[in-house]
Prior knowledge:
This protein has helices at about 10-20, 45-50, 125-135, 150-160, 180-195, 240-245, 290-305, 375-385, 390-395, 405-410, 415, and strands spanning about 1-5, 25-30, 70, 75-80, 85-90, 95, 100, 105, 120, 140-145, 165-170, 195-200, 205-210, 215-220, 225, 230, 235-240, 255, 265-270, 275, 285, 320-325, 325-330, 340-350, 350-360, 360-370. The protein has eleven helices and 26 strands.
Amino acid sequence: MRYLIVGNGAAGNAAAGAIRRRDTRGQVTILSDEPYPAYYRPLIPSLIHDGAGREALFRDELTTPPEVEVRLGTRVTAIDVPGKTAILEGNERIAYDRLLIATGASPARPFIPGLEGDGAFTLRRIDDAKGIAASASGAKSATVIGGGRIGTKAALALRHVGLSVAIVELLPRLVPLQFDETASAIFEAALQGEGIALYLGRNVREIAREGTRVIAALLDNGQRLPADFIVVAVGVTPNVALARKAGIGLNRGILTDSHLETSIPGIYAAGDCAETREVVTGEPVVSGIWTNAVTMGGCAGENMAGGDRTYVGAFGILNALELAGIPAISVGVVNPPPGQGYEVEAIRRGGSYRKLVFRDHSLVGALFVGEVERAGVYTTLIREHADVAAFREAMVAGRLTYAPFLKELPLTTTAYAS
Ligand SMILES: Cc1cc2nc3c(=O)[nH]c(=O)nc-3n(C[C@H](O)[C@H](O)[C@H](O)COP(=O)(O)OP(=O)(O)OC[C@H]3O[C@@H](n4cnc5c(N)ncnc54)[C@H](O)[C@@H]3O)c2cc1C
């Protein structure tokens, strides 16, 4: 059996491992258009400031499984579905019996007058981080457009190399998808304490240049933020071009069934490029989350090698983050819409915050800032739609222990032990 994987990120790498565990003899090939071995993408901001975590960029768990061929710097330009071959740049063809598309996502680039040109970066790949680092040396100031996970990490990295940094975020809070106002307020104070200027609920209307050089970001309220360069971090778009050309079913991402197979038998999709179902709400979701990509890759790989594993669904929100030394974890529904039967229990004590969201007898969301112990058990309870009525009080009080669940719930105990 010839297995071909396009993309050597979290999903592609996990898929190769899962295939190898089931099929020790088949030929497994991973193609990556990047020149680097698999790396932990969330840590690339550490390349900007030579910071902690840099040594973990090429993590042990991303080591290529044995007897897997990885071809770096190799771009797939098309898939010939009837011929069961991938076509590479330069027209080389590689035949497959099972194909995984794990091409990830690309940063979105909003239309802002003056943005196109030198001095405007996005941050997705090692080479992007290296480009930003090169611009930062010799620069005095930078503006980051977008106050989400990537924007805040980029801003902190730039601040650590001594730049004057501003974040401009359209919504009125930081990390708006994963945080609520209270969590945001804790991080606003922390980022401002680091010397980062925040412009929340504001938009960049133009990038001012002198010749080709970026000199400032102009805001919708007329404010002018001097900037030697710009980092744009306003979300990502799934990489679906190969699938589209091949006639594979698409919505926002590549459509997959419960086994992560696409509309074309033998072709699977996983990770940031794939569209699956949200584990809590059952809604279609294209996830931009590392752990989802790993579990999707593992499931797809197992099924490619003859397994019969149903994908449990992706968390729309599942994020572990540390900013300015403060850890935060958000899982499931953290900003529930009003009037749909959600109940919220939230407690803030100084710099720490716990919020639990319930619906019927289940926990459907959790947001922790400062103290994030035992977040794993909450994540499992949410994923398993467990009936937590009897434990709700203990959960709210932060006295949850693993013991009752091991006895009461028909769950895999390994999930709790992890
Ligand atoms: C700065 C930053 C911070 C982040 N922080 C977090 C975080 O805190 N928590 C979290 O959960 N997630 C975070 N993420 C998101 C996380 O990194 C992604 O969800 C994850 O990497 C998705 O894995 P993937 O395998 O689907 O795609 P990717 O990791 O993007 O891998 C896809 C690979 O496919 C390659 N490829 C694409 N097209 C082709 C082609 N035609 N031919 C060959 N190769 C191709 C790409 O170059 C890439 O190497 C962060 C991402 C960034 C950039």
